[in-house]
Write a structure and sequence with these properties.
This protein is α/β, with parallel strands linked by helices. It folds into two domains: 168 residues, Rossmann fold (3-Layer(aba) Sandwich); 85 residues, 2-Layer Sandwich (Alpha-Beta Plaits). It is 36% helix and 28% strand. It has a six-stranded mixed β-sheet with strand order 6-7-8-3-9-10, with helices on both faces. The chain has a four-stranded antiparallel β-sheet with strand order 2-1-4-5, with helices on one face. The relative contact order is 0.12.
C-alpha cells in the first residue's frame, strides 16, 4: 500500500469577485507515493504544487477526493487526530521560516517542546540533528548570523526533530545560489538514503528533480499531466507541459530559430541522434560515420545523467557523399533514433 495515496483530489477557493466562478487550484489529482520515494512535483507558478503539498499535511482541507497517509484517510479527520498525524510529517520552506529571536538550538528544539518531550530527550535529539546537518558549532548562533544554506540546514534539522516518516520540501532551494543548492540537495539525499524518510519535493527547478528525485509528477493548471519514473519522463516526455520543462535542462532537437543559426554556421546535413541508456554507444555511432568516410562535428545538444542512467540528443553536421551518408544513417537508425533536421 502506498505511504501517501491521493484519489481524485480537488481543491477550490471562492472567487474573489462576487458571483464569480470558484478558483480551482487542484483539479482531480491522483498519485501514489511509495515509502522511500523522493517524489518530485514540478510545474510553473500557479500550477497548484504548493496547494497540493498543503493538502498532504492537512494544513488545508481537500474540497473533494481522498488523501490516505500511512493507511489513514485524513480527509474529514478531526483536528485533534490531525495534530498527531502532522508529527510524522516534516516541512521545509523556501524562506526558511526560522524564529529570528531564537538560537539555532532553540529553533531545532521547538517542535519537540510543542510535542511535550522531556528535556533530556530534546537535548539529545537536538545534538544528534545538529551534528547530522553539520551545524554543531552553530548551536548558539542566531539565524541572522547564518548564510542562506546554513539557515536551510537548520530548517532540515527542525523538520526532522520529531522523526517524521515523510518530509515535504516546498521550493526548498529556490532562494539559494547554485553552489549552496547542491549542498542542500546532497543533505536531502542523505536524509532519504540514511534515514529512510520519504520525501515530496515541490519545485519549479528541473535540475532539482534531476539531482534527487526517483519519481516525478508534472502539474499544469491544477492537474497532473504526466507522472512516472524520472528517467522515463525526462528522456521521453509525452505532453507539451513536460516537454517545456525538460527543455530547460535537456537540449533536444534544435528549434526552427536555432536551426537557422546552425545552417548559417555549418555545412552539410544536420542530423540529431537520440541516445537512451541501453542504446548503442556514442562511440559506435561515431565509428560508423568515420568508417563511411564522412566528416562530422557536434553542433548542438548534450548527454544528461540521471542517477547513473544516461540519455540525450546530439546534433551533428555531417559532410560527405549523399549515398554514403544515407547508408550510414540507415545502419545507425537500427540502434538509435535518428532525425534529419536539415
Amino acid at each position: 500500500m502506498p505511504l501517501v495515496a491521493l484519489r481524485d483530489v480537488t481543491k477550490t477557493y471562492p472567487s474573489p469577485e462576487k458571483g464569480g466562478d470558484p478558483i480551482v487550484a487542484v483539479d482531480g489529482v491522483s498519485l501514489d507515493i511509495e515509502a522511500g520515494d523522493v517524489y518530485g512535483i514540478i510545474g510553473y507558478s500557479g500550477a497548484g504544487k504548493s496547494t497540493l503539498v498543503r493538502l498532504v499535511n492537512a494544513l488545508e482541507p481537500a474540497t473533494s477526493g481522498s488523501i490516505v497517509v500511512d493507511g489513514r484517510d485524513i480527509t474529514g479527520m478531526p483536528e485533534r487526530e490531525l495534530r498527531s498525524l502532522r508529527l510524522g510529517i516534516g516541512m521545509i520552506f523556501q524562506q526558511f521560516n526560522l524564529f529570528n529571536s531564537k538560537t539555532v538550538r532553540a529553533n531545532v528544539a521547538y517542535p519537540l517542546k510543542v510535542a511535550g518531550r522531556p528535556k533530556a530527550e530534546i537535548d539529545s535529539r537536538v545534538d544528534e540533528l545538529l551534528d547530522f546537518v553539520g551545524l554543531a558549532d552553530k548551536a548558539r548562533s542566531y539565524p541572522d548570523q547564518l548564510s542562506g544554506g546554513q539557515k536551510q540546514r537548520v530548517g532540515v534539522a527542525r523538520a526532522l526533530a520529531t522523526s517524521p516518516q515523510i518530509l515535504l520540501a516546498d521550493e526548498a532551494t529556490s532562494a539559494l545560489d547554485p553552489e549552496t543548492t547542491q549542498e542542500v540537495l546532497a543533505l536531502l539525499k542523505r536524509v532519504n538514503r540514511d534515514l529512510g524518510i520519504t520525501m515530496i519535493v515541490i519545485t519549479h527547478e528541473m535540475d532539482v528533480i534531476q539531482s534527487i528525485a526517483t519519481k516525478v509528477a508534472v502539474m499544469d493548471s491544477g492537474r497532473v499531466v504526466e507522472n512516472g519514473d524520472v528517467f522515463e519522463v525526462f528522456s521521453d516526455p509525452q505532453r507539451p507541459s513536460s516537454q517545456r520543462f525538460v527543455s530547460t535542462v535537456v537540449k533536444g532537437i534544435p528549434s526552427p530559430a536555432e536551426l537557422e543559426v546552425l545552417r548559417e554556421r555549418h555545412e552539410g546535413r544536420i542530423v540529431t541522434i537520440s541516445f537512451r541508456d541501453g542504446d548503442a554507444s556514442q562511440s559506435s555511432v561515431f565509428l560508423d560515420l568515420a568508417n563511411a568516410g564522412l566528416e562530422f562535428e557536434l553542433v548542438y545538444g548534450g548527454i544528461n545523467d540521471i542517477q547513473g542512467r544516461a540519455f540525450g540528443h546530439l546534433t551533428l553536421a555531417i559532410r560527405g557523399a549523399d549515398a554514403a551518408t544515407d547508408a550510414a544513417l540507415r545502419r545507425i537508425a537500427e540502434r538509435v533514433d535518428v532525425t534529419e533536421v536539415a
